[in-house]
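Lest this sound abstract, we let one protein speak, letters for residues, whole numbers for local backbone shapes, and leave readers to judge:
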Amino acid sequence: MTFDKLRKEAIAEWEALEHSQKPRILIGTATCGLASGADAVLEAIKLELSRRSIEAIITQVGCIGLCYAEPMVDIIKPNRPRICYGNVTPEIITRLVEDYLVKGDPCADLALGTIGDGHIDGIPSFFDLPVLKPQVRIVLRHCGFIDPENINHYIANGGYSGFVKALTMKPEDIIAEITKSGLRGRGGAGFPTGTKWTFCRRSPGDQKYIICNADEGDPGAFMNRALLEGDPHSVLEGMLIGGYAIGASEGYIYCRAEYPLALKRLRIAMKQMEERGLLGDNILDSGFNFHLKIKEGAGAFVCGEETALMASIEGKRGMPRTRPPFPAVAGLWGKPTNINNVESWADAAAIMQRGAGWFASFGTETSKGTKTFSLVGKVERTGLIEVPLGITLSDIVYNIGGGILKGKAFKAVQTGGPSGGCLGADFLQTPVDYETLTKAGSIMGSGGMIVLDEETCVVDLARYFLTFVQAESCGKCVLCREGTMQMLEILTDITEGKGKPGDIDLLLELAESVKLGSLCALGGTAPNPVLTTIKYFRQECEAHINDKRCPAKVCKSLVSFYIIPDKCQGCRICLRSCPTNAIAGDKRMIHVIDQSKCIKCGSCLDVCPARFGAVAKVSGEQLATPKEPVPVDSWGKA
């Protein structure tokens, strides 16, 4: 079958869907939606429609990015704009069906926005929402709009046209187009993609491979997973283009087994490609042969490093090796191999569909295009975002993220996950691009972005990330294995009040040694959270060491709980919640906490009625309290 015929069939199916006289209901069933209860909402939709004998078309789509509003359900009635509803429950479904589908009331109080032509009173345009207005959707253009398990939806919306265009071009011209776009690897290193393809293209050898690195392992990161769940064909099209340009006939997708939904949708997508002659031998009668396989990884963070990843595909233990030779010369099974991550491949498909100039019109002089981030932490609107490179951290945190939760103060943002750095308020106006983040001591990484508020201890955070990378170190390099362990021990001591003068200098010395003495990026970047914490929050580190005080009141060993005598009403609520019987006091008696029994769980603070506010959490100080319970109102009168 020719591609023109495939496209005509796909467009006919899509237009029939778009112009259907039946109401359409779209529900986000990516992992974030399912975790928020989308499966129960889906069942409620089916049940309510069946109960009322309403015929409607239900489509499961990927994450549109507003994870904080999941589960999300969109309703399209004939000749009306699409209406998006967030935080939907089975109970809300009953109302939406009754009020909107049956009676015509769009339930504006429940709606987030409308998509498409037309306006509905009381409902804003979806893409004018503050969370979406600064964003540019290139990689995520189909997520939330097409059925990821239906290849026709992708083809009807321009899918595989980039690959078909590539088939008419010389491989060198394709690579030139990618180079012209300015695309840099979205896995974190930011190496120019066109240059990388050129190296592999020019490497001699009859057998070449390309690999999609989908081993996303950063804590808090889910960009690649969401893309594979919401639009797998965009990634696969990019791989087809790359395979043709480089001269590879085989490819692998290395995806961790912890992503079952992504793996399922990838397998469905590949089967559909094979059925339509888009994968296998003599693709679209072009003479181009390309075969794809999926390798499920076991979830080792180090396997995100390309040489460790290739070792894992070969059935060996996932450990990095020295370079050169680089994978472009001797990669998988010793053959020339090109590795890009999920987002890079999807970008390549978009570039070939719409042109290098269009892609390069976004971003900065040296960082072109857009970048997806998982925006998480202490921010009002968490989710999956895609922004033009060069946007400031402030725009991301405040305009897109809606600011800090509960009106608290911004403290820092961790970019690049465990390999990145912690940047404080002085960096809020910093443009997000490869060079600027590196200059600040952090990295772009694959796109994890964690926002911290005033109640976050950056020393404890650095300890957390170091715990992660220390556990994930493969152990091959002595400095990575032993150096990170020593750094972790020092940091743990500091957070437990056992820090000593000289610890900061020792941490700096160890950090530089680990960076210099490690083979791969895991060890090379592991000290970044520690280095940036010391560089930008040195006073906070010194307070832990010199004053035995945690300014954020997070480190358990350095905090204490007291009942404030002047405010205690002797209600016994805190006493009843204490799991260790550390609180003494009878009714109408000022309660007292036995510090030797207190495990600092904070339950007394949590349950003390706000109108009393009688429990204090302090660090580095002691409050004057009675040694034994005394009658309320007697304190200070003796």
The longest strand covers residues 370-377. Residues 300 and 472 are 7 Å apart (CA to CA).
